[in-house]
Amino acid sequence: MEIIKLESIEKYYRTRYEEVHALRGVSLSVNEGEKIVVMGPSGSGKSTLLHILAFLDNPDDGKRYILGEDKTQVGDTEAARLRRDMFGFVFQEFNIIPEMTVEENVQLPLKIKKVPLAEQKNYVEKALKAVGLIDKRNRKAYELSGGERQRVAIARAVASDSKVLVMDEPTGNLDEETEKEIVKLILGLNEQGKTLVVVTHSDRLARLIDGKLYHMEDGKLYK
Ligand SMILES: Nc1ncnc2c1ncn2[C@@H]1O[C@H](COP(=O)(O)OP(=O)(O)OP(=O)(O)O)[C@@H](O)[C@H]1O
Ligand SMILES: [Mg+2]
Asked: Most buried of the four, 16, 67, 69, 158, by CB within 10 Å?
């Protein structure tokens, strides 16, 4: 089943000095349970593509469908609802909340979804064990290293129990051993039916994930 479809997407960023044409006619179809890997140089439009795919932004032109329904332009409320119901994210900038503990950060999306408390605890514990942070569950996020913060972001995405995991350089700051552990975790989730869309510069990560590979170059997406 096709969960997400992008058709001829165009995206511009307008700054004070210039206009950047970040996506040029990008089309992509994501089927349920699929693994998609997008590679490409810095500035080629990978994060922009993820933002549009996962309703953090609207396109300037083209079409976007979720489960066959046209969701090209959506307002803030509907975008928030779609994000909450469909997506778990690992952003390039992590977006974890420094003043919250490790556990609170991971639990947050489940709280927002109003998942029953016992289940919340269960998901959080599993995810923290999987990323090797169970012993640091009560630390404030600002007391963690960069790689540990990244693992909190991964645990949060994993615990969110969403259909699609969208990850932007999920293992960029991690050593090979930790990266392998994380990949094992996300591949396990994929085997249980979760869809993966992963952006990375790393050939090693792309190889480990072994998904359908796309290449992004100057705002265009190639197979
Ligand atoms: N908020 C913004 N305002 C203006 N230009 C932006 C903005 N975000 C991205 N861009 C520009 O759009 C283009 C694509 O950026 P994007 O972040 O999608 O690249 P990327 O492929 O994710 O790069 P990286 O690998 O470095 O993360 C770049 O030229 C970038 O400078
Ligand atoms: Mg990026």
From this structure: 158
Q: How far is the CA of 49 from the centre of ligand 1 (A)?
A: 10
**Rounded CA separation 1/26 (Å):** 20
Task: Confirm if 165 and 155 have CB atoms less than 8 A apart.
Answer: no
159-209 pLDDT per residue, tens: 887 899 999 988 887 888 888 888 888 898 899 899 999 999 889 999 999
The protein residue with its alpha carbon nearest to ligand 1, atom 17, reads 47
- Closest-CA residue, ligand 1 atom 6, reads 13
* Domains parsed from the chain with CATH numbers: 34-53+75-222 (3.40.50.300)
Closest ligand to Cα 51: 1
At 105, give phi and psi (nearest 5°): -60, -45
Q: For residue 149, what are the β-bridge partners? A: none
| Closest listed residue to residue 164, CA positions, set 66, 80, 39 | 66
The per-residue DSSP string of 127-173 comes to HHHHTT-GGGTTSBGGGS-HHHHHHHHHHHHHHT--SEEEEESTTTT
What is the Cβ-side half-sphere exposure of residue 41, based on CA atoms within 13 angstroms?
4
**What pLDDT, in 10s, does the model give residues 93-125?**
767 899 999 999 999 989 988 899 999 999 999
Q: How far apart are CA 86 and CA 35, in angstroms?
A: 16
Closest CA to 159 of 96, 66, 81, 65: 96
